[in-house]
Each structure stands twice: as structure tokens, then as C-alpha cells.
Inverse folding.
């Protein structure tokens, strides 16, 4: 567990497989989320230095760079010589205690990454709530969770359930309790056209690709979305048409 910069947790076999090449971007290529990047990097560096640091929830519009930022920030911390590794969880969340046991005895900081998390009911998130804070089995000091989600509160608000409850406030509090246990919550919002073009420009300059702003806007219009993900997909298409590799 000190031989790689990133791992993937496979609960069915109890294995942590090393990732030989992490799919991430240089932090400087992520445009329009400078404040979120600075906050997440500062929290990650504190954690790697064995200083107090929070668990993190990155929430907001799809394709706005949440997952990319997590991997880029961990890479930036590693490039600065910080002993932190990324562990991506693709297994059921009830296997997290076994993962924590595997990491607890290793003299290294581990950022446990859960991507695109969401629950349909408050009861589904209660196990994770206890692992974040308040459970009898404490999370190891060398482990912090970083979670991305499209919803700020992770659980959709059921208005009919709230209306039928004896005390509607209890129902609301139960739905919000999970998100409240993340010490650091960072929002990501939909891009305007200038922000989208700034991302396209950054990618194009990094890969020495000339681009036409009107064409890039038309690409986003056809997709019905302006986001960092759509900007990268345009760059992939542009590079392919230009006969250049990325």
C-alpha cells in the first residue's frame, strides 16, 4: 500500500489493486473552479501532513469537474511530495469497514473516493452516516472520505412523506443528516458561455490545437449542455479531425 499513487477497492475479493496510470488532468487545466480547487488542495495537504482535515462532499451540476478535481488535487499533492494515496471505491458501501481495517495500519494518508453517490431514501444512507461521524467503530485517522454527487443533500426530498409525517421537521432533518456530516461541502454550478469557452481554450492551447469559438459553441448547443465534460469531448473531436493525438 505504499507502492502506488492510487488503488481500486474490490470488496468481493478483499483486494486493493494498484492503478498504474491514473486518469487525471493537470490541475492548471481545470478552469472556472479555482476557489474549489484551492480549498480542496489545502484540506488534502493538511490531511497528508497529519493535521486536522475534513471529509469532503463535492456536489453540483453534472460535467462541471467534480471527479476530475479530486484526481487532479491528489496528483498535485503527490507531486509536492505529500504521502497521500487515492483509493476509489466501486464496491457496495457496506464494505467500507473492511476497507478501513485494511488501511488503518499503514503509515500513509488515504483519500477514499466515492464517485457519483446518491440515495433514493434516507434509510439507504444511514450506514454511511455512522462511518462519517458518530458510529461506534471510528474511522481511522489516516482515512478521509471524498464524495461527489449531483445532489447537494444526496437524498431527494419527498414532499408527500414530509406532509404525512407527524412532525415534518423530523423527516427533513433525517434527509439532511447525511450531507451535514461532511465537514467540507463544495458546490459546482452550471457554466455560462464564456466559462465554457475558457475551458475549451485551455485544452486547445495545452494540445496545440486551433479552434473556432463559434464551432465550439455550436458543439455545446447540439449537446444541450455547456460543461467541462462537453468541452473535452469537443477537443477530442477537434484533435481527431486535425489528425493529432492527445
Amino acid at each position: 500500500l505504499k507502492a502506488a499513487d492510487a488503488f481500486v477497492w474490490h470488496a468481493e475479493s478483499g483486494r486493493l489493486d494498484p492503478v498504474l496510470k491514473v486518469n487525471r488532468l493537470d490541475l492548471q487545466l481545470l478552469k472556472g473552479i479555482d476557489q474549489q480547487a484551492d480549498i480542496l488542495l489545502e484540506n488534502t495537504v493538511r490531511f497528508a501532513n497529519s493535521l486536522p482535515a475534513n471529509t469532503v462532499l463535492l456536489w453540483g451540476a453534472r460535467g462541471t469537474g467534480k471527479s476530475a478535481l479530486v484526481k487532479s488535487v491528489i496528483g498535485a499533492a503527490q507531486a509536492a511530495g505529500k504521502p497521500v494515496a487515492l483509493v476509489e471505491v466501486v464496491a457496495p458501501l457496506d464494505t467500507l469497514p473492511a476497507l478501513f481495517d485494511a488501511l488503518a495500519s499503514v503509515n500513509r494518508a488515504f483519500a477514499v473516493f466515492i464517485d457519483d453517490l446518491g440515495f433514493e431514501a434516507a434509510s439507504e444512507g444511514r450506514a454511511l452516516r455512522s462511518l462519517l461521524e458518530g458510529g461506534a467503530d471510528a474511522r481511522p485517522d489516516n482515512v478521509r472520505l471524498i464524495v461527489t454527487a449531483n445532489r447537494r443533500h444526496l437524498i431527494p426530498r419527498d414532499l408527500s412523506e414530509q406532509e404525512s409525517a407527524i412532525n415534518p421537521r423530523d423527516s427533513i432533518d433525517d434527509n439532511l443528516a447525511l450531507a451535514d456530516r461532511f465537514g467540507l461541502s463544495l458546490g459546482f454550478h452550471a457554466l455560462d458561455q464564456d466559462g465554457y469557452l475558457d475551458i475549451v481554450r485551455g485544452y486547445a492551447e495545452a494540445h496545440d490545437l486551433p479552434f473556432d469559438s463559434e464551432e465550439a459553441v455550436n458543439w455545446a448547443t447540439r449537446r444541450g449542455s455547456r460543461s467541462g465534460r462537453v468541452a473535452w469531448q469537443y477537443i477530442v473531436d477537434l484533435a481527431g479531425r486535425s489528425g493529432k493525438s492527445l
Summary: The chain is about 40% helix and 15% strand. Residues 46 and 166 are 44 Å apart (CA to CA). Confidence is low (pLDDT under 50) at residues 165-175. Strands lie at 6-10, 15-18, 56-60, 84-89, 109-114, 143-149, 184-188.
